[in-house]
Amino acid sequence: MFGVYDNKDGGGWNTTKDAYTSFGARPDRGKSAFFNNGGSAPRGSYPRGGFGGSGNSRWVEESRDDEDWSKPTQANERLEQELFAGGNTGINFDNYDDIPVEATGQNCPHHIDSFQDVEMGEIIMSNIALTRYTRPTPVQKYAIPIIKNKRDLMACAQTGSGKTAAFLLPVLSQIYTEGPGEALAAQKSGGQDNGKYGRRKQYPLALVLAPTRELALQIYEEARKFAYRSRVRPCVVYGGADIGQQIRDLERGCHLLVATPGRLVDMMERGKIGLDYCNYLVLDEADRMLDMGFEPQIRRIVEQDTMPPKGIRQTMMFSATFPKEIQILARDFLEEYIFLAVGRVGSTSENITQKVVWVEDGDKRSFLLDLLNATGKNSLTLVFVETKKGADALEDFLYREGYACTSIHGDRSQRDREEALHQFRSGRCPILVATAVAARGLDISNVKHVINFDLPSDIEEYVHRIGRTGRVGNLGLATSFFNDKNGNITKDLLDILVEAKQEVPSWLESLAYEHHGLVGQLNIPLTLSPYTSFLLPPPSQWVAPRQTH
């Protein structure tokens, strides 16, 4: 996503030096001392009846077969203010110019350099102007013409690259051009036997699957912007919220559906959603969905119901990595697809400064206070811990120390999680303690500092955590607390630091040598991270990433 404010001041960076040197290295090893609200609806509560407003909320009764969906509907000043007031201000698009992009596949459409280079219609172009997006990001330059040319797409791209608009803009543009087609007639006549009270089943024209509730909501909020003054009505369904409320909102009409896999299967089995006319399928954060065990639900949705088969529907997959499991999914779901590999701002050391410091478990809280004091209490700081219990304990500790903080983890209710994210984004609680549930997909624009209070057990999780800062051209700082418990990622962490041209602590090199004897023989995996400079081999030579040690 984009709509990120420019934070080039790097507040507090130069003052952190004392904090890093205040905890001594272990002498025996000689260790050196070293997501934008966008003016959308409030996130503190579930948007009751708020799925509409971005189109005709009574489309079920009022839509006519002869309506021209390509023409904008009447403006709504209140809604326009709500959707676009926060706007996109201060992005430094010059930082995008050096992002590496590789497109491979048969007859790949030529990329665009401006939004005017491709015909997307009056509605889309006016909404782009309202969002104040001046020119496309690299993933948009390539993905938009690929999707507009009705080609399937497999894109390796991070969440900070602007990929949400890269698929929403062309998909909505095509829906506006083509209209509702047979879906409208099916919805009108569709079975009074559907649902307990004879409610009509909804037949969305486009489906976006996302792994988490937070990411689904963010995609939905972006869809509301680009569906403004159109007849398209976006909806979102996800677990952890009142299903009755979601069903009532669906029954008001749904053309573009954003969903988590589990909740969508539930809706389908209740007869509330039919995918018979779903001509556009997007799988966002596909690798994350597989990591979370959603593959059976995804295959149930795509292959074992009424969704049109590949070759008839258009399918787009986005993934941060390209392991063997994702390659298999792409083979099964996509038809003659184009592979797009897009780097991300942060590919070089100038955007995200990574620090790894040796901190024993008993010293972590004290060291954390030093870091927070050095960077300033008002700088947005994201602190990652491994367990839900640890998140609650650390939040309580910081609160007792006088810090405005909040937390999110899997045991908190959806309402509590949304409220916590809203308080963090708004700056009322500038410190957010989180488990991995927040590591991927969250688009929080001005996070200055990511702290791995507990390092994760695998390097991919590390990459996604630190990617919460330094987004879309802004500066970021990532600090990780390392000790004997983290030996399993020593080699991979060293690889990442070397790739990103970061300062490598001498003790980390020593540890890597002790564990593997591999210093000087660094092997870079075929895993697309924000820090990898890459030229992909041809698809025939793709292999899964090497296993972490």
UniProtKB/TrEMBL annotation:
Domain Helicase C-terminal: 367-512
GO MF terms, alphabetically ordered: ATP binding; hydrolase activity; RNA binding; RNA helicase activity
Source domain of life: Eukaryota
This enzyme's EC code(s): 3.6.4.13
Name the record gives this protein: RNA helicase
The entry's keywords: ATP-binding, Helicase, Hydrolase, Nucleotide-binding, RNA-binding
Listed PROSITE patterns: DEAD_ATP_HELICASE (PS00039), HELICASE_ATP_BIND_1 (PS51192), HELICASE_CTER (PS51194), Q_MOTIF (PS51195)
Span of domain Helicase ATP-binding: 144-340
Domain spans labelled DEAD-box RNA helicase Q: 113-141
Family as reported in the entry's similarity comment: Belongs to the DEAD box helicase family. DDX3/DED1 subfamily.
Q motif, short sequence motif: residues: 113-141
Ranges where the record places region Disordered: 31-73
Catalyzed reactions: ATP + H2O = ADP + phosphate + H(+)
Pfam families tied to this protein: DEAD (PF00270), Helicase_C (PF00271)
Signal sequence, start to end: none
